[in-house]
Amino acid sequence: ASPHPDIFRVSNDESEGCTNVGRTGWHIDGTFQAMPFKYQTMHFHAVCAGGETWFVPLKEFYELQDEETRQRWDRYWFVAGDRELAHPLVYQHPSRGDVSMMFHCGDHFCAGWDVDDESPDTARRQPAGQLRPRAVQQELSERLFDAVDKVGVKMQWEVGDFAINDNLGNCHYAAPGTQNDRRQSGLRILHRTTIAGEELPTKADGRKSYRRQI
Q1: Strand partners, 78
Q2: For residue 171, what is the enclosing H or E element?
Q3: Which secondary structure element, helix H or strand E, spans residue 154, and what is its range?
Q4: Prediction pTM value
């Protein structure tokens, strides 16, 4: 059991903690909130063979893309699973001021994508269409799996490791080995906490995450 209500206990054994966490796809945490989490902490009390966490820095990931892809992505808005909230896929990191991205590639975390019109004045753009969830999630996933070996890291944890992750600057993914059978690979226990966000995601042209009319 978790030692505190604010600590999320994760494991590869359901008797020890929540299982299959982070396995649905590349993501940042808290996309269901108007102000997603700023940071997450990760403290490993036990590790299993193959239990890596993969990270990709989103500024560098965006910069890997060609200009056509960047311009297209700049028109997309991630619609959270409840369909009420939309975040810009491409926006400004709130503390660094450079480019970052916001998404969740898990099936139940994304309800679709609002797509801006093509007005040359980006600040005046309005959502003019929609895409199904997988239309963009699949593209992002394929490019992230390619990018992790170029600009990311596949973190191999050791017992006692403690990490503070910039949740708004890095996306992450729990590798398949995180759910290896403990009888063959050992027990995995992660204690995770999150630090509340303080700002609405905001694009370079000043537009912010918004509540959708449904």
Answers
A1: 87, 113
A2: strand 170-174
A3: strand 153-155
A4: 0.96
Q: Give the separation between CA 25 and CA 125, rounded to whole angstroms.
A: 30
Q: Which residue has the tokens 């009420």?
A: 84
Tokens, residue 197: 């966000």
Instruction: Say how far apart CA 26 and CA 28 lie, in whole Å.
Output: 7
Order of strands across the sheet that contains 153-155: 153-155, 53-57, 170-174
The Cα-based distances of 27 to 13, 63, 105, 169 in angstroms read 23, 18, 6, 11
- Token pair 């509540």 is found at 211
Average pLDDT, the chain: 97
**Matching residue, tokens 């909130």:** 33
Residues forming a β-bridge with 35: none
- For 64, list phi and psi in degrees, rounded to 5: -70, -20
Cα 159 to the center of its chain, rounded Å: 25
CA dist., res. 214 & res. 208, Å (int) = 18
Mean pLDDT for the stretch of residues 67-89: 97
Cβ contact 24:172 at 8 Å: no
Give CA–CA dist 45/196, Å, rounded.
24
Is the pLDDT reported for residue 214 higher than 70? no
Give every CB contact of residue 16 below 8 A, 6+ residues apart in sequence. 9, 187, 189
pLDDT digits (tens, 9 = 90+) for 158-194: 999 999 999 999 999 999 999 999 999 999 999 999 9
